[in-house]
Every structure is written in C-alpha cells, then in structure tokens.
Amino acid sequence: MKTYERIIQLVLFFCAVIAILGVLLISYFIIKEGAPIITKVGLMAFLTGKQWSPLQGIYGIYPMIIGSLLATVGALLLGVPVGIGCAVFLAELAKPRVAGIIRPGIELLAGIPSVVYGLYGLVVIVPFIRKTFQNQGFSVLAGSIILAIMILPTIINISESAIRSVPKDYKEASLSMGSSHWQAIFKVIVPAARSGIIAAVILGMGRAIGETMAVIMITGNSTLIPESILSPIRTLTGNIGIEMGYASGEHQKALFATGIVLFAFIMLLNTVANMIPKKVGE
Amino acid sequence: MNFKKVLALVCAMILLVGVFAGCSKPAEEAPAQPAGQEQPTEAAKESITINGSTSVQPLAEELAKAYKAKNPNATIDIQAGGSGVGIKSAMDGVVDIGMSSRALKTEEKSLKEFKIAVDGIAVIVNPANGIENLTMEQIKKIYMGEITDWKEVGGKAGKITVVTREEGSGTRGAFIELTKLEVTENDKKVDKTTASAITQGSTGAVMTTVAGDPNAIGYASYGSAKAKTEVKMISVEGNACTEENIYAGTYKISRPFLMLTKVDPTGLGKDFLDFILSAEGQDIVASHNYLKAVK
Description:
The complex is a heterodimer. Chain A is an all-alpha fold. Chain A contains twelve helices and two strands. Chain A folds into two domains: 2-47; 62-275, MetI-like (MetI-like fold). A two-stranded antiparallel sheet of chain A has the order 1-2. In chain A, a hairpin with a 4-residue loop joins strand 1 and strand 2. In chain A, helix 4 crosses helix 6 (140-164). The model of chain A has no long low-confidence stretch (mean pLDDT 92). By secondary structure, chain B is an alpha/beta fold. Chain B folds into two domains: 47-118 and 256-292, Periplasmic binding protein-like II (D-Maltodextrin-Binding Protein, domain 2), CATH 3.40.190.10; 120-255, Periplasmic binding protein-like II (D-Maltodextrin-Binding Protein, domain 2, 3-Layer(aba) Sandwich), CATH 3.40.190. Chain B is built from eleven helices and 14 strands. Chain B has helices at 2-29, 32-38, 56-70, 83-92, 136-144, 170-178, 203-212, 222-225, 243-248, 267-277, 279-287; strands spanning 46-52, 74-79, 97-100, 112-125, 133-134, 161-165, 182-185, 188-191, 198-200, 216-221, 232-233, 235-236, 254-261, 291-292. In chain B, the strands form three sheets. In chain B, strands 1, 2, 3, 4, 6, 9, 10, 11, 13 and 14 form a ten-stranded mixed sheet that branches. The A-B interface holds A 4, 7-8, 11, 51-56, 63, 122-123, 126-127, 130, 134-138, 216-217, 220-224, 231-232, 234, 241-243, 245-248, 251 and B 3, 6-7, 9-10, 13, 159, 161, 166-170, 188-191, 195-201, 205, 208-209, 212-213, 215-216.
C-alpha cells in the first residue's frame, strides 16, 4: 500500500472514531445526568407515574409515554399508506417526466425545517381542528397530521428503493402467468419488497418519535393522559424541549431521565430495523 | 490527478488539526495571565451576599452581571432561598441585602426597603370574548379546572381553553403565587393548575394561542402583553390592567420586587443599589418585561 493511501485510511478511521465517540459521550452524559433521578424515584414509579409536577419533586412520565406513542401511531396510520402508495407509483407507474416533478418535491419536503412544519400546524391545522370539532385544537390529531407529513420522505425514499430492488424476473414471471399489472404490483412486487418497506416504516417511526419542535407547537403539551385523539398531549421530546429553558437542579435531571427513556425507545426501534432481513423475498 | 486531490485533502486535514491544536493551547494559558494582573488590585476587592426571592434572583443576577462589567473587582454572591428567607436574613443581618417579591408586613417595616421593579401579570383573553372582568376567585377556579365553561362566569357558552406556561417559568411561578393557585399542603408548595391546561413554552406562544382561540384564557407579563392588539387584557376585581393600577397595587396580580437592608447601605451594597435604581439599571429591569420602579 502506498503511503498516501495509508494516510487516507488513517484519516477516514479517525472520522469513524469521532462519530462513535459522539454517540458514546452523549449516551454517557445523558445516563450520568438522568440515572440518579430514576434510582431515586424508582424505575416503575417514573415510567408509570401519572403526575408530573417537577417543582414538587413528583416525576411521572406515563402521560408523556402515552402521548409519544399516540402521536407516533397516528402519524404512521396517516403517513404509511400515503407513503407506500407514493413509492409504488414512483417505482412502477410514474412516467419519468412526472417522477421528475414528484421526486424533487419529496426532497424539498425532507428539507423543510421542523419549526416551519410547526408554524404551519399552528396557523392552519390547529385552527382547522378547533373549528371542525369546537375544541382547543391542540391535539393528538394535529400532531399526527404534521408528523405524518414529516415522515413521508423517509418512508417514500426507502420503500421506493426497496420496490426497485425487486428483480425484474418476479414481475415478468407474474405477468407471464396472466396477472394484470395491478395484481403483479400488490401480490408480487410489494410483498417481495416488504422487508425494505417495514424498515422504512420503522425509520419513519423513529423520526416521528424523536421530533420535538413541531410537536411542541401543536400538541398543547398538557400533562394529562389523553382521552381521545382530540385531547392535547405532551410527548417525551416535548417535555424536555418545553421545560429545559428554566429547569435547574433535580428538575433538569428529571428531564435528562426523560431523555434516557426516549433514547431507549429509539435504540429499540433501530435494533428492530437492523434485525429485519435485508434479502428481497423470503 | 486523483493523487493531487487526495494530497490536497490530507493537507487540508492536517491544517485543520493544526488550527484546532493552535486554538486549544492559548486557551489553556489564558486564565493564568489575568490572575496575575489582578493581584496588585486585590486590596480594592469587595464582596456582598444577597439572598431571597427566587423570582427576583434572575433579575438580580442580570443586574449584578452588568454591574460587574463596570466594576470588575466587586463580588456579588446571589442566592435564592425565597422571599421569607430574604426578609429574615436581612433582619438578622446575615446577608448584606435581602430580596423579596412581596410587600413587607408591618412588623417587617424596620427594614430599609428599595423597590427595584414591579412585576404585573396581565390576564389575557381573545378579543372576541365578551368577558371584561374576572375576580381572583374566578381566575383561580378556571385554572384549577373547577370552572370549565365561560357561561359560568357570565360569558357566552363555550368550553374554556386554559393556557399556562411550563413548570419552572418565572411568569407561571408569579401567577400561581398571586392567584393562590399555589397552596401549601403538608409543608410543601403545591401547584393546583389543572393538568389539562395547554402548556406553552414562551410568552409569545401563549399570546398566539389566545389570539387564535376565542375560548382561550392565558397570562403574560404586562410588559409583553400591553402592546399587543390581538389579545385583550381583562380587569381583575374591577381594576383594569394598567400601569397606574399595577403601581398602586389595586390591580391584584402584581407584586413589587424589593431589595432590603437592615441599616442604610454603605460601600458596595449602596453602590450596587444606586446602580439598580439608575437609568441604566432600570433599563435592564424594563428589558426583562418588568415595570421600572423609578420612572
């Protein structure tokens, strides 16, 4: 190996180390700051406690866990069908000229800062829900709609490449057996690409559960366990984002502890995503 | 061609590392120098301790920062033990200055008191809301979730959207204290704000929410709400939320920020209080959305 190649290798290795170091340092810091509160309150009391009154030393994040899960599930219900539909259209049906318009549009969607999504939700979606249902507007539904739009790029891009990676033979074999194009798409191609599509959904879920700014602006941040999809919620990320500004002492540590729970959720999702077989078909 | 590019990249990397290394070294050396310079003037160093209200403390910190920028030898140690502690410490003489965010009771009047700011909190509703006035009791019950419909307080029927600030916010702290939403149970202060309240992380977000929802009620510091036309400040107990009423104390959701000393202050304590009450100090007060104590 030439010397400069070795240098390059070293430099690249250094870059990789920095990335890993970042993850390790952040994990260490969050756990170091948050763990004492969890041990003090007790893990179960912390996770299932229904009251969050940090200034009185009562730390229960159950409403926030439910809030995060509801918003995320809602986002998936709205976003996944649209996302997969769009991916199928782009991969199988769209003429190059049409795809040439849609694809940059989706890239643009991915590039919009989350605070802009939040602002849009605040001035369009929240008032719309308020008028339609005669309530406060800030709700699970508002959060889910915005999150559904935000996770579309993730779901579309990954699903589309999964569908495209299905070998041509599958489709041709299906068509030669006399199936229609539709049947080929929904009975053969999409099922063959399902591991990629599931990965897309899980990554979209990770994006939804981790989103903070937009969610703070439109979900109302009440610390109540929601009764319906029209109730306001506070998510785990929202809890940290909204209170970090003035929190100090134990209150701040409790927010780091919230971060640990969030971190565990995200790691779980990533692990599941990695466990899905990459192979097309079975 | 590729080799050249790679070489350039490596050179750039090495340069960059060099830059970082260059940055870190002087930073390590830097603290040593000023310390050396300070030594001759150490004789002129003075320090005071301040303790008291947690609400006044952030403002006092800001004022101390500005003061120290002009008087680098001064040391001002500010702690926040609560108004009660501030008053008692000043009376006992264990601190140079006490801080209080409530008016003094008669038996505490022996203290020298300096009003440094006035904190007024406006209760705001949507301009479309017909309500012009609420009593303290009504406001308290709305925020506790006991009154949930505007018709219960004489308005048009509609479910009240209660908007509050996040826990830890100074404005929320003042609001729950002044409206008696904060009650003492078993020696612990408990915040009775309903958990179903919409919680917003900033004054701006509270006002946007109230401006957009005809059934909403919220609160914001008078300083930030007064100029806004998209929300309506309502009267409390029949007294409009105006500067005069806040100064006079007739508008009930207000409180003075006091600095207290046992005897007439001298030295650094006097100088610091003079600074707070100077035009410059009062501008800092106004910039934090409190009303100036000296106009």
